[in-house]
Fold this protein.
Amino acid sequence: MGRHRRPWPTVRGAGIALVAAAIVAGDVSAMGGHPLSNLRLVGRNLQSAEAMLVQSLLSVRENRLEDALRQIDTLLQRTPNFRLAQLVKGDLLMARARPINNIGNAHDAPAEAVNDLREEARARLQRYRLDPPRDLVPKYLLQMQPQQKYAVVVDTTKSTLYLFENDGGRPRYAADYYITVGKNGFDKSREGDKKTPLGVYHVITELPRNKLTDFYGNAAWPINYPNEWDERLGRKGHGIWLHGTPRDTYSRPPRASDGCVVLNNQDLDQLGTHLQAGLTPVVIADGVEWVEAKRADALRAPLLQQLELWRKDWESRDSEAYLSHYARGFTSTDMGLTEWAAQKRRVNASKEWIKLKVSDVSIMLYPGREELAVVTFLQDYSSNDLANQMRKRQYWLRQGNTWKIAYEGSA
């Protein structure tokens, strides 16, 4: 009975067409101008669910539909809740009966759900077109402090979260993961806009599964949105987390959250082993800018130079030289430049000597704004009548050719 299987008809069509001629013929419009034949699996984990899905699609492109179905079956045995893989299998089975021209070809398929899965397919295929960034670094991670073992960079446009290891203060690519971001995209500005924020953030804490509903998956890692710069700009909202998916959902479409960054539970578990509450930076960008290490060094050098000049001028008790490092429109947690200057002049005049040590410096450029940098460090202050230590965060603005401090407060 199983010997005379219905032959596969000619597969033809357009669009993403995971099981149609857009793959078989290499339709470039479906892939944003990039044919599927450009996909490279070299350097990837071929046992990951995403790689197995892509390998199945490559089999479709080569018209090896039985191989594609076998690969999808293997994938679904491992991850039965992978809805995109379920849909591809359904299309492959349907293709035995008739030609199909797109993903989700069943007449009664819910349009919105199928469109979401098409977008997930597109995002996953586009991710696999790109080699891991082994020779380049994101321009934002100019310097990591010694205690920061890893850093996270999120590319909202490529549905990808990159993990970088701290290699002597410089980032080194470690892994990347498919992610979901806000339903309405990115650049969050108000409560309830269902957008993912753009900026430089830090992981605050870990919320384990026993403190969460199933919706958030295995864990959640809140980040500090709104940060100090968001508050300065009047940005509102809260509750932006890195979190997982419900038990019945392997992954979600590229734009499906209320603003959080969502990973599947297996990927979140891996990522979570590298996250440090209060330390790990999370840079969220609308398209990551990659540079060579030498370029990152050149961007970092003037900031380190200005930070050292600021330290020396404070230590010298020359209030005017010290205050020259502060930008027009400077704010701290509770005062503006006028109040800040008056307080510093008064305090410095009362000191016989000041010693200031700055260590454990991290420097992050703001995504989309090369003239804005976030500098965090350990400040060890002592004088004739006071000694204290604190983590400090400053936002530096480049005004003309000089970096100046636009915000200063505790980290």
In short: The domain at 137-291 is CATH 2.40.440.10 (L,D-transpeptidase catalytic domain-like). The chain has ten helices and 19 strands. Residues 1-43 have pLDDT under 50 and may be disordered. Residues 293-316 form the longest helix (24 residues).
